[in-house]
Amino acid sequence: MNRTDMPLRRALAATALGLACSAGMGRAAAAPCGPLTVAMYEHGALYYRQGEQWAGIDKDIVDELARRTGCELRMTRDSRIRIWTMLKEGTLDMTMSGIPTAEREGFARFTPYLQARNMLLLRNDAARGAATLEQIAAQPELKVAVIKGFKHGAAYDAWLERLRKQGRVHEAPDYATLVRLFQYGRVQAILQLSSNIDALQRDTALAGRFRVLDLVPRENVVGALVISRLVAEAHAAKLEQALRAMREDGTIKAIMERHVSHERAQVMLAR
Question: Which Pfam families would you find in this protein's record (predicted)?
């Protein structure tokens, strides 16, 4: 080999190696986002059946996240208790409107987009003297239903624990069962997010049959996009960034106004 050719050969080899590395990095950067499974649960304006289709704030947000990021997001339905179990076990990628706790943050990451308050809905045929949590607790004939696995904030959760010890709390597996228990008088009270009140007041089976008590006005509940910590960091960050952009540019508020009143949407948007 001619000595004068050696530097040239080394330069060509280095260039080829660099091009190969660049191509590899390009393929890695173009790695597909998903498919990721997003488990949804029926819950008032957030996710509900509309004829033969499913609709709601959470569904529209997932659709927009998929459009903006190019991620393939596959929506499924399940119970709330199973959703949290699967997230903890690492067999589910995402869910919506989740409430962060110290335990949950160990296996999932949370990006808030809505806020609401839990309201106590009390049947009109229940005791008229029941207007506070203490007054309700003092009347053993009054029973309450909640959806199993839900967190309602410190004040309500402590109150519910007292009633559980007295056998006065029904744990419904889903939203539809919760509403039926209330509708047919199996329980006298249910806890509902303020975002669902409008729809329940329009429900012909319930309209005019209950009153709404705002008993813990300072305790707001934050709903968040929930992503398993097993999802690739790059994909999770892309989805979170898109959600934050949707919150800032008014998209989330516009989505909320498709399903709740303008006034309700104003207070629901997470600050």
Answer: SBP_bac_3 (PF00497)
